[in-house]
Design goal:
Shape: globular
Radius of gyration: 25 Å
Largest sheet: 6 strands, mixed
Helix content: 25-40%
Structural class: alpha+beta
Number of helices: 10
Order of helices and strands: EEEEEEEHHEHEEEHEHEEEEEEHHHEHH
């Protein structure tokens, strides 16, 4: 008789075990160390393999990450040992669907307990159905990760050439040879306390693209009216902007000034709070995105990607964030103005060299934006399918058809 439990419990899928030791020395071995929310180092021993890791205690309690290959889990994580005849990836998606963060024990220090894990109800179909569900969701995750990998590689290439041309000054000279290494003339710059190529200047960020401020939107604009307004919390440390909680309605009839409307490829920067100075590239959306007060806005013009490569890689230099922290310190609430941002030093190379760099990498950043857009669509589909598959509202066949239609979404770079 086939198994098709609608009210199974997680202990029928896993044996749970807290990780070992609060910390383990990061000695750079072959096996990643997992804490409560991802990799925190590497070591030469392991205590789990190809399995989920659940955040055990603290701010990340209940978060579920999939750990590939052999890995070591500290006490900050929960080891999940899959039981016989359970598809490991199906078990992983069962955990994701279990809302563990909404079931935590403890008030001052939230944590995941064994009894919490064991009592959670879940769907447990027969193995062949598990396999098909796992494949649908895993295929979506694989496509998302492939896009992320492509983006990382494109960003790395842009960074490598930026360093080569604008840090080491080995951009191509008139003969196509590396400038500085081929004896190109250099001159000492007192402000930078180093030599720079003759003809280059030290200006500031405002000379290349000034930052301006957003609008003081009332909270009702994004709660009641549904306007998609980016706040500081939406800007992520990985140079992206989280739009998952923004309104997705085109309300241009509200006649909001277009100078507060950001385009795909523009850059937004946090100007207040503990994460002051974090910045992100505006993604492609089907609706306009507006910039809130205390968010700086680099408006890169009609075609932002034509100026984006040089600016984003300049902002990625360590000195930029260090300068932001220095300027914003000294107050109870770290704060920086657009005027201060615009005065931060920036090497202004020969225009021909900057244009050549931007022209080379503008297509890279268009691809990055398109991949991010596709990932947004795929993530929304996965997050919709997950609970639907687990409660039987969508059949596996219907999910497979949805995946087939979403395999190559029609995505084009565009400005709003």
């Amino acid at each position: 008789m086939s198994i098709d439990y609608r009210n199974a419990q997680l202990y029928e899928l896993y044996d749970f075990q807290y990780g070992t030791g609060n910390t383990i020395e990061n000695i750079g071995g072959d096996f990643p160390i997992y804490g409560s929310n991802g990799i925190v180092g590497y070591t030469n021993k392991f205590n789990s393999e190809d399995a989920p890791v659940i955040g055990h205690i603290g701010a990340y309690a209940g978060i579920v990450n999939w750990a590939y290959g052999k890995h070591y889990v500290t006490y900050n994580g929960v080891i999940c040992k899959i039981k016989k005849n359970i598809n490991p990836r199906f078990g992983y998606y069962s955990l994701l669907n279990s809302n563990l963060q909404g079931r935590l024990r403890g008030s001052t220090q939230p944590f995941v307990s064994y009894d919490l894990l064991n009592e959670v109800k879940t769907y447990l179909p027969e193995r062949k159905i598990q396999d098909r569900i796992a494949k649908v969701l895993s295929d979506l995750d694989a496509k998302i990760e492939l896009n992320n990998k492509i983006n990382r590689e494109l960003e790395a290439m842009a960074k490598t050439l930026y360093d080569y041309w604008f840090v080491q000054f080995d951009f191509p000279n008139e003969q196509g040879k590396p400038y500085k290494s081929s004896g190109g003339k250099m001159v000492y710059n007192a402000e930078l306390k180093r030599e720079i190529p003759v003809g280059w200047e030290v200006g500031n960020i405002g000379n290349y693209c000034p930052s301006s401020g957003g609008f003081a939107f009332k909270s009702s604009w994004w709660t009641n009216e549904g306007v998609s307004v980016v706040k500081i919390k939406d800007i992520q440390e990985d140079y992206t902007i989280d739009i998952s909680n923004l309104a997705k309605v085109d309300l241009t009839d509200k006649k909001i000034d277009d100078k507060f409307k950001a385009k795909p490829g523009d850059i937004l920067i946090a100007m207040t709070g503990a994460t002051v100075g974090k910045y992100g590239i505006v993604p492609i959306t089907d609706y306009p995105i507006y910039v809130n007060q205390r968010v700086g806005y680099f408006n890169l013009g009609k075609e932002p990607t034509e100026k984006l490569p040089y600016l984003i890689n300049s902002l990625n230099q360590p000195y930029f964030r260090e300068m932001i922290f220095s300027l914003a310190s000294g107050a109870a609430q770290p704060n920086i103005s657009n005027e201060q941002i615009n005065r931060i030093s920036l090497i202004i190379p020969d225009r021909t060299i900057v244009n050549k760099y931007n022209l080379k990498f503008a297509p890279f950043y268009k691809t990055i934006l398109n991949n991010q857009r596709q990932n947004q669509q795929l993530t929304e589909l996965r997050d919709w399918l997950l609970p639907m598959l687990m409660n039987g509202q969508v059949t596996v066949k219907e999910a497979e058809e949805s995946l087939s239609m979403a395999a190559e979404p029609s995505v084009e770079y565009k400005t709003n």
